[in-house]
C-alpha cells in the first residue's frame, strides 16, 4: 500500500474517533428561544464526552443562518471563547445559530438553535376566572405572556406604584375574598434575565366582591317533629338568586348526602332519618358556592297515640254540657281532629283492635270537618251515652295517627229510677278484699241488670271469677285490680242509673270516699286507710293536687259541702304510700232549690197583688166621691168568713171617727182559702187579713164636709174588698192572720159628688 493512502486513512479514523467522543453541543443561557428587543442571551458551545473539560486546545467558530433555507454565514471566526453573547438584542439578531469545534486539526459541528427576537416591550394579558366574586369564594387571576418562558410575575392592587401584593414564578394568583373590601383593581407585570428585563404593566382587571348569598333550608310541611310513616320534605333556596343558576347539595349531620336536587324528599320517614339537615348551592357558570344554610333539625318519632281528655266525672245528667279535647303530645302543628263513637258493625265503618277484638267506630257527624281539637255536647242527651275516641291527621296526602284511648260518657235522666249499691260503700278497694255490687230500686229490681265497663268493653255479665246471685247482683270474695271499672244498672228498656267508678288497688293505701254524689249541705268524711293493722294512719289530704289538711287520725270531715268541694281527692302517708285519686261529686239539693224558687215567686206575686189592690181601691174611692149624692148612705154589711163564722167589723160611726180627728179607713179583708187532701173531713176557719187604706183628713176638712152636706149623716169612708189566698195541699192549718194595714192617701176633687 502506498504511504500517502495509509496516512489519509489514519487521519480519517482519527476524525471519526474524535467526532464520536467529542461531539459539539450548542446551548442557550437562559434557555429562551424567544426574546424581546433589548434582552440579553448567551450561546455556549461545548464538547460532550469525558475529555471535554480537559481539552484547552479547542477552537470555536460561530455560524448564523438569517432565514429558513438560507446559507449559514460565519459570524465569529476561530476563537478560544466558547460562548457568544447577544446584548441588547435587536430584531436582526433573529436566526438559526450553530458552532464548530476544532481540536488538533479535527472538527465537530454542533446542533442548531433558532432564536426569535420580537420587537417592542411586551405587555402581559391579565384575566380572572369569575366575575363577580362571592365572599368566601376564591378568584384566580392569570397573567399571560404567550409562549415566552422564564418570567417571574408581580401582582399589584389599586395602584401600579405600590409594592406588589404578591410575586411568583407561576403566572396565576388566587385571592380568597373573605370580605367585600377584597375587591378592587389589579395589575400584573413580569421580569426575567440578568440584567433584569421588565415587561409593561398589564391592563387593569376590576374584581367585584359581593356578599355571598345564603342558602335557606325549610321544611315543606311547616313542622319538623314528624312520625314514622310521614313524608319528610325539605327545600333549599338561595336568597335573592334565580333557581336556574344553581345546583344543590345536602348534608346530614355535616356529612354529605348523595343528593343534588333542590327538594330533598323521603316519602316514608324512619327514626334513622332524624338529624340536622343543611344545604348549599353551587353556581352552574363558575362553580361558586353559596353560604351553607342553617341546620334544620328533624325528629322522627314513633306513630303517636293522641291523648283524649274528658271530664273527671264521666257520668252526666240530661242537660249538662261536656267538652272533650284531643291533642298529640309533643306536636301541635297542622293537625286536624276527628271524633268517633263506638257503634254496631257496619261494613263501611273503621275499626280499632283491642285485645284481639275489633271495635267499630262511627264518625260523629259534628266533627267531619276535623277542625279543632275539642268536641262539645251541649245539652247532653241520653243518646250521647257511649264510648268516644279521637284521631288526628295532617298533610297531603293525609297522615293519620293511631286512635286515642277510649273515653266513656254516661248520660242519665234527672231522677234515675235505680242506683248501684256498693259494699263496702267506697269507690276504692284493696285487692284480695271482698266486694259486692247490686242494683237497688224502690219496690224491686226486677228487670234491671248490673252492667260494667272496663277499657273498651261493655258487659252485662259479672266479671270473671265473680259470683252472680241474680242478674242485678255481683260479688267477689277476693277482688283483683282487673275488677276495677265503671258499673251501672240498666233496665230492659234501656234506662240507666248513675254509674259508679270502682278502683281495686294493689298498693297499701286507699282513700275511702262515697260512691254516689253528696248533697249540698250534707257532711263529707274521707278516710285514708292502710292495708295492714292498724288501718288508721296519719295522712295528708289533697284536692285537685293542692294540700288541704294533715290529719293524725287519717280522717278528714267537711261539715257542710258546697259545689266548691267537688273535685279529685287523694291521700298520702310519707312512709306507707299514696292512694289513687277519686272524684267526689256534690249535687245541689232539689228541695232547697225548689223552696227558694217558690219563695222568690211568692214574694213577687205578693208585691204585685198589693200594688193591684192599692191601685184598684184608689180608683174606686175617687170614682165614688165624684158620683156621690147628698143624703145618708146605707152602711156596707159586715163580712163573714167563708167558713160560716161571723167576723164582726169594728163598729164606729163616721161622725165619731171624724170628730175624734181620726182618719177615714178602708178595710181590705183577705180570706185564705185552704186546699185539703181528699181524706180531710172538715175544713178549718179561713184566715182573714185586714188591710186598712186611710184617707187623711183634718178636723177643718170634716167640718167643711158637714157644712156642705147640710148637717146630714156623712157617708162612711170605709170600703171592703175580699181576696182569697190559696194554701197548698198538705200544709198545716195556719192560725188566723194578724190584721195588716196599708194607707192610701186620696185627694177630693172639687165639685165631685159621692155615688
Automatic annotation (TrEMBL):
Protein name from the UniProt record: Basement membrane-specific heparan sulfate proteoglycan core protein-like isoform X2
Q: Where are the transmembrane segments?
A: 598-623
Query: Which InterPro entries is this protein grouped with?
Result: Ig-like_dom, Ig-like_dom_sf, Ig-like_fold, Ig_Fc_receptor, Ig_sub, Ig_sub2
Pfam families in the cross-refs? Ig_2, Ig_3
Top-level taxon in the UniProt lineage: Eukaryota
Biased composition, Polar residues: where in the chain?
649-659, 688-700
Instruction: State the GO CC annotations.
Output: external side of plasma membrane
Keywords attached to this entry: Disulfide bond, Membrane, Signal, Transmembrane, Transmembrane helix
- For the region Disordered, give the residue spans: 630-661, 676-718
Q: Does the keyword Transmembrane helix apply?
A: yes
Quote the gene name from the UniProt entry: LOC105897111
Is Transmembrane helix a UniProt keyword of this protein? yes
Biological process, per Gene Ontology: cell surface receptor signaling pathway; immune response
Q: Which PROSITE patterns match?
A: IG_LIKE
Ranges where the Ig-like domain occurs: 3-116, 122-210, 213-299, 304-404, 417-494, 499-591
Amino acid at each position: 500500500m502506498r504511504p500517502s493512502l495509509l496516512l489519509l486513512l489514519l487521519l480519517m479514523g482519527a476524525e471519526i474517533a474524535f467526532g464520536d467522543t467529542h461531539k459539539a453541543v450548542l446551548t442557550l443561557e437562559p434557555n429562551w428561544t424567544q426574546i424581546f428587543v433589548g434582552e440579553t442571551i448567551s450561546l455556549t458551545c461545548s464538547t460532550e464526552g469525558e475529555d471535554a473539560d480537559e481539552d484547552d486546545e479547542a477552537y470555536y467558530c460561530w455560524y448564523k443562518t438569517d432565514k429558513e433555507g438560507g446559507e449559514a454565514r460565519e459570524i465569529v471566526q476561530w476563537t478560544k471563547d466558547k460562548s457568544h453573547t447577544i446584548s441588547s438584542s435587536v430584531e436582526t439578531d433573529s436566526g438559526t445559530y450553530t458552532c464548530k469545534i476544532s481540536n488538533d486539526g479535527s472538527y465537530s459541528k454542533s446542533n442548531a438553535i433558532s432564536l426569535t427576537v420580537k420587537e417592542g416591550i411586551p405587555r402581559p394579558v391579565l384575566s380572572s376566572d369569575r366575575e363577580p366574586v362571592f365572599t368566601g369564594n376564591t378568584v384566580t387571576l392569570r397573567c399571560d405572556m404567550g409562549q415566552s418562558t422564564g418570567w417571574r410575575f408581580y401582582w399589584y392592587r389599586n395602584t401600579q406604584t405600590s409594592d406588589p401584593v404578591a410575586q411568583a414564578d407561576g403566572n396565576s394568583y388566587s385571592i380568597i375574598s373573605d370580605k367585600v373590601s377584597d375587591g378592587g383593581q389589579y395589575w400584573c407585570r413580569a421580569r426575567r434575565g440578568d440584567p433584569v428585563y421588565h415587561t409593561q404593566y398589564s391592563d387593569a382587571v376590576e374584581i367585584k366582591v359581593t356578599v355571598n348569598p345564603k342558602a335557606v333550608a325549610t321544611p315543606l310541611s311547616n313542622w319538623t317533629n314528624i312520625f314514622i310513616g310521614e313524608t319528610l320534605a325539605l327545600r333549599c333556596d338561595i336568597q335573592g338568586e334565580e333557581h336556574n343558576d344553581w345546583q344543590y347539595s345536602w348534608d346530614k349531620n355535616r356529612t354529605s348526602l348523595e343528593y343534588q336536587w333542590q327538594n330533598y324528599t323521603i316519602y316514608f320517614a324512619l327514626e334513622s332519618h332524624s338529624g340536622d339537615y343543611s344545604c348549599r348551592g353551587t353556581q352552574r357558570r363558575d362553580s361558586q358556592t353559596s353560604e351553607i344554610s342553617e341546620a334544620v333539625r328533624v325528629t322522627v318519632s314513633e306513630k303517636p297515640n293522641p291523648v283524649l281528655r274528658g271530664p273527671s266525672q264521666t257520668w252526666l245528667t240530661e242537660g249538662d254540657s261536656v267538652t272533650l279535647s284531643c291533642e298529640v303530645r309533643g306536636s301541635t302543628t297542622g293537625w286536624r281532629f276527628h271524633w268517633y263513637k263506638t257503634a254496631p258493625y257496619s261494613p263501611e265503618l273503621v275499626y280499632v283492635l283491642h285485645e284481639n277484638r275489633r271495635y267499630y267506630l262511627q264518625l260523629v257527624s259534628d266533627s267531619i270537618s276535623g277542625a279543632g281539637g275539642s268536641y262539645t255536647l251541649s245539652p247532653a242527651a241520653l243518646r250521647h251515652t257511649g264510648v268516644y275516641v279521637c284521631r288526628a291527621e295532617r298533610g297531603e296526602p293525609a297522615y293519620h295517627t293511631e286512635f286515642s284511648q277510649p273515653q266513656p260518657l254516661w248520660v242519665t235522666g234527672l231522677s234515675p229510677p235505680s242506683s248501684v249499691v256498693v259494699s263496702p260503700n267506697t269507690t276504692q278497694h284493696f285487692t284480695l278484699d271482698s266486694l259486692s255490687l247490686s242494683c237497688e230500686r224502690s219496690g224491686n229490681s226486677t228487670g234491671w241488670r248490673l252492667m260494667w265497663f272496663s277499657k273498651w268493653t261493655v258487659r252485662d255479665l259479672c266479671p270473671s271469677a265473680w259470683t252472680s246471685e241474680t242478674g242485678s247482683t255481683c260479688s267477689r270474695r277476693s277482688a283483683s285490680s282487673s275488677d276495677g271499672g265503671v258499673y251501672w244498672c240498666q233496665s230492659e228498656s234501656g234506662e240507666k242509673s248513675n254509674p259508679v267508678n270502682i278502683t281495686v288497688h294493689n298498693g297499701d293505701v286507699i282513700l275511702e270516699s262515697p260512691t254516689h254524689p253528696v248533697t249540698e249541705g250534707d257532711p263529707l268524711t274521707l278516710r285514708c286507710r292502710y292495708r295492714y293493722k292498724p288501718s288508721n294512719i296519719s295522712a295528708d289530704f289533697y284536692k285537685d293536687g293542692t294540700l288541704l289538711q294533715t290529719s293524725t287520725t287519717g280522717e278528714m270531715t267537711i261539715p257542710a259541702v258546697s259545689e266548691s268541694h267537688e273535685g279529685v281527692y287523694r291521700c298520702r302517708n310519707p312512709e306507707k304510700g299514696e292512694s289513687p285519686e277519686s272524684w267526689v261529686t256534690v249535687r245541689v239539693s232539689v228541695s232547697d232549690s225548689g223552696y227558694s224558687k217558690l219563695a222568690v215567686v211568692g214574694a213577687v206575686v205578693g208585691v204585685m197583688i198589693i200594688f193591684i189592690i192599692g191601685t184598684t181601691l184608689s180608683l174606686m174611692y175617687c170614682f165614688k166621691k165624684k158620683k156621690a149624692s147628698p143624703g145618708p148612705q146605707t152602711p156596707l154589711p159586715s163580712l163573714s168568713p167563708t167558713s160560716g163564722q161571723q167576723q164582726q167589723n169594728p163598729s164606729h160611726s163616721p161622725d165619731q171617727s171624724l170628730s175624734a180627728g181620726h182618719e177615714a179607713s178602708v178595710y181590705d179583708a183577705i180570706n185564705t182559702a185552704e186546699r185539703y187532701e181528699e181524706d180531710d173531713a172538715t175544713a178549718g176557719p179561713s184566715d182573714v187579713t185586714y188591710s186598712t187604706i186611710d184617707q187623711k183628713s183634718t178636723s177643718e176638712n170634716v167640718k167643711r164636709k158637714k157644712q156642705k152636706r147640710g148637717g146630714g149623716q156623712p157617708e162612711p169612708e170605709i170600703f171592703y174588698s175580699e181576696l182569697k189566698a190559696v194554701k197548698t195541699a198538705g200544709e198545716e192549718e195556719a192560725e188566723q192572720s194578724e190584721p195588716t194595714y196599708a194607707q192610701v192617701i186620696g185627694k177630693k176633687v172639687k165639685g165631685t159628688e159621692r155615688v
